[in-house]
Design a protein that fits this description.
single chain, mainly alpha, 3 helices, elongated
Amino acid sequence: MTPYEELTSPQEMHADCEAVSRNLRFEARLARAAESAVLPAPSIHFEDFPREIPKREIRISDAATRLANALQLHLD
């Protein structure tokens, strides 16, 4: 008995690989990767990005304030 006796034929293994490739949509992924590979690199220049980004406003509800006060976590 050789270590390769349990393997199927190369044709069957090839068919299995093609089925896996179809099910995992490798061709679509490879096509997207090929498209992305030829795009220009993103800019690293400071002027190409917004200089000031407004911060989000954080609102503390009345319920959160009551809970924080009950736990003595003063949210002023």
